[in-house]
Amino acid sequence: MRIWGGVALAALLGACSGGVVPHSVEPGYAPPPSREVPRERPRDSGRVAEPHGNPAVRQPIPAVPLAAYPAPAAPAGTLTAASAGLIPGPAFDSLPLSDDAAARALVAFRLSCPSLVRRTDVSGLTQGRDWQPACDAAKTWPERDSRAFFSRWFESVQIADGRAQATGYYEPEIAGTKHHRSGYGVPVYAKPDDIIEVDLGQFSNDMKGKKIRGRVAGKTFIPYYDRKEIDQGALEGRGLEIAWAADPIELFFLQIQGSGRLRGPDGQVMRIGFAGQNGREYVGIGALMRDRGLLQPGKASMQGIMEYLRTHPEEGREIMWENKSYVFFQELKGAGPNGSLGLPVTGQVSAAVDPKFIPLGAPVFLSMDRAEANGLWIAQDTGGAIKGPNRVDTFWGAGDDARAIAGGMNSRGTAWLLLPLGTLSRLGGAPIAGAPTPTRQR
């Protein structure tokens, strides 16, 4: 799930009554002002939300990334890190990392350990037992000495050419309530129990790792209802509504974000998180609208997209329906939101990755051209458009600072993956000892 600058959208919110209204919402309703209007940020592709009445994007703090070691890019069609090409990375002690950042990373890594030692690593790099020594040590390792922990138990490796892209996401907040009431008429659905996921690898080795979702109609397996069908009432009357949002456009973008908070007029907050998806194709409507010339110069931001959807309600509804992907939610309790490991993600340390290239739970060191993204991140989440080697979507938590940083995060630089000591040698690569100290790019 992508990112850009923002200005206040108060004028656009005044047009909510002309917004895109799903089948189940009374025509002509005027939702109350939301605290924020989301921008287009997938976890599916990396966009973020904008606040109502506040600038969302902070000016980047430029930085000069450390240079990756010379290596070819991953071959076209590469499916896993093991086949992308690996070389030794720098010694961990040579990497710039504050004690506080290392301590945050240790806490997050410790939380991931039970999953790390149990999960099958689809990247082809590790097995659960490889992580056990580090995880055992992490249980009692003092956080004040976290840099020494990572130095003692890990080696860094570079996947292919190491060239990385980092985007950002955060937990947005929109107007919504747990119970249906006037002004809150957009259903927030739980995952239906008739969605069936099929592992195609069970039918053909050529399709190993590929899955599809759909439903059974009679004796035929067919695609699940798409966004248009759901908006027009395909799921009504099944008791799947877990909450109600005020604005269908805001809920559309919160779906792309993957999790968020619903705040009612009484100030009560309900946290919701990703529970499933209908298996249909994700389409980024921002790119679609630009390609069709619908966004005038200076309107290619999310503000412009939102303005167009609200001022062209019929066409806007059709445009949103072209994104057939639909996300289902569950109410979240306790800490969170939860990432793909089923564990709470933490601002400034958790990240979404492609697990075919970065094992879920593993640490990743980023050295980017934007200083905020630099440091050690723990892979605890995934995203539909976070694909390929060295692609990292950084999580910033909730609140104004998180929104401001995530809102402009789109940086380039270098990534090194931290793996248990001895992994590279076992995989047939060169030992980590003697790897050169990284230098700043010129």
If you had to describe this structure to a student in words, what would you say it looks like?
There is one protein chain. With 442 residues, this protein is an alpha+beta fold. The chain has two domains: 10-59 and 172-331, Barwin-like endoglucanases (Ribosomal Protein L25, Chain P, Beta Barrel), CATH 2.40.240.50; 81-168 and 337-426, Barwin-like endoglucanases (Beta Barrel), CATH 2.40.40. Helix content is 21%, strand content 23%. It is built from eleven helices and 19 strands. The radius of gyration is 22 Å and the shape is globular. Mean pLDDT is 83; it is low at 1-56 and 430-437.
Percent of residues in helices comes to: 10-25%
- Structural category is alpha+beta
Q: Quick one: CATH superfamily of the largest domain? A: Barwin-like endoglucanases
**How many domains make up the 3D coordinates?**
2
Radius of gyration: 22 Å
Beta percentage is 15-25%
* Shape call: globular
Low-confidence stretches: 1-56, 430-437
The tally of strands reads 19
The CATH class of the largest domain is: Mainly Beta
User: What does the largest sheet look like?
Assistant: 6 strands, mixed, barrel
Order of helices and strands: HEEEHHHEEEEEEEHEHEEHHHEEEEEHEH
CATH architecture of the largest domain: Beta Barrel
CATH-defined fold name of the largest domain: Ribosomal Protein L25, Chain P
Instruction: Please tally the helical runs, counting DSSP H or I stretches of 4 or more residues.
Output: 11
What is the terminal-to-terminal distance? 31 Å
Q: Provide the residue-averaged pLDDT.
A: 83
Strand order of the largest sheet: 5-18-15-17-16-19
